[in-house]
Amino acid sequence: MIFNKDTAEKTAELLLQINAIKLNPGNPFTWASGWRSPIYCDNRLILSFPAIRNYVRDEFSKNIEKQFGKPDVIAGVATGAIGIGMLVAESMGLPFVYVRPEPKKHGRQNQVEGFLQKGQSVVIIEDLISTGNSSLLAVEGLREAGAVIKGMAAIFTYGFDVADQNFKKAKIDLYTLSNYQNLLNLAVAKKYVTEKEEQTLREWNVIPSTWGV
């Protein structure tokens, strides 16, 4: 679920402007999972653009407090959400930790890095939601560390049904600055894509795991 429509449209436009999101229906990308995709999202680019990272920080800060209430701690999911998570924590005047999808294989074998007390409330920052599996592994790690999860806030979601099911099963409320539907509507309105490309992009979003196979 998006925080609000205006933020969703503005965020989508900014992500397209800096090529954090690339649409290429004619020459699809291959994800690490092996899925073929006409879209690729790299929200880490946001950190290189001060005005845009500040916008994302401010939208997260005000909407997190409005939607979830002020938590005790902000947690960023490694590695993509560490930078923006720190900015949000600083803006809200809160402690920050980051969490891996799984514990380190060496040293203290930590999954959560930073100071976190059992019983503290946490809002998790994520950069991108696809199936939600890696994000929810981070949730499990925080719960095992004793955190009370108020919810997760992400920059962008592809809006897959499987992600909705996974978050519902984990009993985690997910809110995002933008999503695939708002992105696609904007891309069509601003002529980033043709009508034929729009159809391809919509078809992919319905069954992404077998698209283009």
UniProtKB/TrEMBL annotation:
Superkingdom to which the source organism belongs: Bacteria
Residues reported to bind orotate: 130
Phosphoribosyltransferase domain segment(s): 58-154
Protein's pathway: Pyrimidine metabolism; UMP biosynthesis via de novo pathway; UMP from orotate: step 1/2
Cell division keyword on record: no
InterPro entries: OPRT, Or_phspho_trans_dom, PRTase-like, PRTase_dom
Molecular function per GO: orotate phosphoribosyltransferase activity
Keywords linked to the UniProt accession: Glycosyltransferase, Magnesium, Pyrimidine biosynthesis, Transferase
Catalytic class of the enzyme: transferase
Binding-site positions, 5-phospho-alpha-D-ribose 1-diphosphate: 100, 104, 106, 126-134
CDD domains: PRTases_typeI
EC identifiers of the protein: 2.4.2.10
Catalytic activity of the protein: orotidine 5'-phosphate + diphosphate = orotate + 5-phospho-alpha-D-ribose 1-diphosphate
Keyword Repeat listed: no
Function: Catalyzes the transfer of a ribosyl phosphate group from 5-phosphoribose 1-diphosphate to orotate, leading to the formation of orotidine monophosphate (OMP).
Self-association and partners: Homodimer.
Alphabetized HAMAP family for the sequence: PyrE
Protein name: Orotate phosphoribosyltransferase
Source organism of this protein record: Flavobacterium granuli
Gene: pyrE
